[in-house]
Design brief:
Length: about 190
C-alpha cells in the first residue's frame, strides 16, 4: 500500500524556482524539519566511523527567520532556490550559492537541501539534488560542495547521489558546523 501511495504522491509534487518576494516565514508554516538522529558519521584520526549520538534536530522560529534571510540573500546574489510543493504547501527545498570556490575544484555551494519529515523517502530529495546539480553546471561549476548533516540517514542519501569526501575543505563550513561531513559531487 505504501508503494502505491508514494507513486501517486510523486505525480502530485510540483517543483519550481522560488523568488525572493515569496520567501517568508509563512512559506515554511507546513514544513517540518524535525529529524530524530541516533547515529552519526564522524571523521576521526583513523578515518570515518559511525558513532551513537542521539539527538533531535529541529528548527525554532528564530531558525526559520534566519533561513528566510539566508535564502533571500542567495537569490539577491544570483543564486538558486528551488522548492517542492505538495497540495500547495512547501515540503522540500534546495539552494545553491552563486560564488565559485575551491580553486581548481570550481565548487558551487549546495547551501540547503531539506525535505519535510512526513514526506522523506518519496524521491523529493533526489529531484531537488538533481535540479541543484543542473543549475550549478549551467553556472560554471565543476562540482557541488556540500557541508552535510552527519546523521547516517543523511549520509546514505548523499552516498546514493554519488557524493564523496571533498578534496578541498571550506574552512568557513568546518568552523560553522564541525560535525558536518564535507562532501563534493562531480557535475
Amino acid at each position: 500500500m505504501r508503494e502505491k501511495e508514494s507513486i501517486s504522491m510523486k505525480n502530485e509534487i510540483q517543483y519550481r524556482e522560488l523568488h525572493a518576494d515569496e520567501i517568508n516565514t509563512e512559506l515554511f508554516r507546513d514544513f517540518n524539519r524535525r529529524q530524530v538522529v541516533t547515529k552519526c558519521r564522524r571523521r576521526e584520526k583513523d578515518g570515518w566511523v559511525i558513532r551513537e549520538d542521539p539527538f533531535i534536530d529541529d528548527w525554532s522560529e528564530e531558525d526559520y527567520r534566519t533561513l528566510v534571510v539566508c535564502l533571500k540573500h542567495t537569490l539577491e546574489t544570483n543564486g538558486f532556490v528551488y522548492g517542492a510543493f505538495y497540495e500547495g504547501k512547501l515540503k522540500g527545498f534546495t539552494s545553491v550559492e552563486s560564488m565559485l570556490s575551491g580553486g581548481e575544484q570550481r565548487y558551487l555551494d549546495l547551501s540547503c537541501i531539506h525535505v519535510s519529515e512526513e514526506l522523506r523517502g518519496n524521491g523529493i530529495g533526489t529531484v531537488l539534488f538533481l535540479a541543484a546539480k543542473e543549475w550549478a553546471k549551467k553556472h560554471g561549476a565543476s562540482k557541488l560542495y556540500i557541508s552535510a548533516h552527519s546523521a547516517v540517514e543523511s549520509q546514505r542519501f548523499y552516498e546514493k547521489m554519488g557524493c564523496v569526501e571533498a578534496q578541498v575543505y571550506d574552512q568557513k563550513h568546518v568552523e560553522a558546523e564541525p560535525y558536518d561531513c564535507q562532501l563534493e559531487n562531480r557535475l
